[in-house]
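Sample pair:
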Amino acid sequence: MMRFQLKPLTVALSLALAMPLVGQAADHSLTQVSHDSQLGVSKLNFVVSLDWDLAKPPSGFDRNYVYNSLRQFARSLYTMTEGLHKIGTVYVYDKSQFLKRADIQFMNKQGRAQASVSGWKRRSNEIEIFTFDAGAEEPESIEDIGKTLAHEIGHYGYGFLDEYAEKGKKSSTDLGNPLESDTPRNTIMNDHLKFTTLSTSSDYADSTTQKTAQWRVYQLSAWEALIQNPANDGETAAGYGGPIRTWFEAFRTLKQAPTAESLKKPTGGDDELQVVYMNEGSLMVLAINQNLTLEQLNAAKQSAKGAVDALNNKAQVAVLAYPDFVSNPVQILTLVGGNRDTIQAAIDGIQQSAVNNDPTQALNAALTIIKDARNPATTPSVLLLSTNAAVDAATVQNYRQESVAINPVVISTDADRQAQRLAARTQAAAGDKVLLGALAGQTGGRYAVANNNSETAQAASQLVDEAEGEAVAIINDDGVDQVTPGEPFTLTTLIGSADQGATLRFTAYWDPKDPVEFSLQTPGGQLITPDRLPPEVRYEADGDGASASYAISPQFAGRDGLWLSKVAARQTTADGVFQDVTATPSALDADIVTTGGSKEDTRPMHTEISVDGPLQVIQSTVRLEIYDEDGNPVQTDLVAHDDGIAPDVSANDGVYTVKVADFLKSDREYELVARVSNPNNAAQFSTSGRRVQGTDAPPVPVGPFQRTTSIWVMNETAPEPTPITGGGGCVLTPNAPFDPLFPALSIGACWYLIRRRQSR
């Protein structure tokens, strides 16, 4: 089946930056590192998300607990890096805000601390820390939490593997797994409660001591690996450090690694620690290009007004209409609560302009507004509504320096889309410009392309959700090119135990000129329409008549099972219709990244789909679909595996891998769509595969669920692929049974992961 798209969506990748279009830095713009070249010391800023409410904290887990844990973290990190790395500002969100994009997920429950190896500046990578150790009745002490974080930053920040022996583990195909026969080293990567330093060459002076996960992967001590250019890491480091390991500035200048005798073991290092509790809402500048067609401008204005509706009352918003800046009366950040009508009236007043310019000037002006009014406890971003364009490359550095995310929505039409994309790519290829997609990725933002009014409004609303850090997951989505009378477009969605406690939202989008009706049927057969609403269901319709949604309360009886959402037409629609189903809040999520296929990482491109909630979910069924930039299917049923067989790195760690390089031509854009489900109820929450000390906790069944995630990529290093014959894209194995609930079509993209509508 052909992947449905209202118009062929394209994502412009920066040829100058040469990277897949994915989020950066634990996917949050506030994660940063700054280096003092005179002192030779770097300062790291982290983002933490707590899963509890600091205004009403559980006993013992108040701000003092958080601050003092982070203070011990700063001290331990300072000692282990010989004073070359210090903790600067730690931005702390609570109530799970930005949980999926934080460096550190802090959960008030039992669990084993873990970290993604070489996760710094990589989407879908993080540290997970728990207030209670697995099986413990008493909470972890502040000192133990801080020291544990230092151990985990060894994995997450520096790419180290463990240096302890894992009792009971006789063998493993994963080189990164500690074994019972290993020879533990007296280092923080062995026991962080006893030791404070990293391993040196003397720890591996002879073959009898060269038996740790760290040595098997790198054939180097931690300090030797820390100062080495990741490009020179050995072949066994692929998938752990390799070309993705961060080479921090503070360690690049060291001519040789410290020895055991030269270690100074400095103390302190918490003097620059600042903990900022992010409780002041978001700052958002809406930048609207006036050099659009009248229809495009009206869509941009309507979408900007919808964005204002979707913002939290505590948010502050400013509006920039460019290039005619003086025509816009809202160029100061204004509190949304109580001022929505005023802000939206200003948006209505924006007029077309015949002047054609790129968004650089507007982005510079937006950054100035944010810098002048910024409070450290606010989360800043820019929502840009424009056509396809390339902007000055300096914009990336300016925004990264100020930790501000840019979220562009490219408004395109059939007539101009191809020409605009070509012109923008040509500019970017010259070297001093970057495309909006790369601009978003490099600043920790998201990027969307919209080809009609409803898509523009949809994308703007989604990016507001991203900017405010809502914990929303896409359960299902699908679409059709046309709906005819008597043949409604029906989407079948499985709701299971994994979605308990979440508000479900069934949303349909259509062209406002098309007369359609949107209804639901519950698993028990109950029909829900706008005029037949149970008390636990809320119906919301956009003012422009382009979309509507049903919000299903967690208290709705009989939620589990198959739901049917239907869009019926009284006459054949002129345009396509699509639907999505989301859960809010949702800890269970899927995410997708690619490795390889870029000029920086020339390995053949493969895709990694992580499934967690927040513990890893193993034994899921994960399929991957590939579509070209015009929406045509390239492969529609590849199976991703979590079996530890290359290219998958580690078995049963909740990361499912499949090679995609063979299907991607060079210099073309592709959408990779992952479908995750549990058709045989085999999926489990698991601690297996975690590279930490301790005993694995028993797995826990997940229950029925569906999730969808996707990403746009360009395989820059691909040769012309060899044609694949004999079976096409349908791959079924004993580990991947056919799942009739898998939707065959999708409209999602990675920046569409978070979706929400709000009524006011």
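The domain at 473-584 is CATH 2.60.120.380 (Jelly Rolls).
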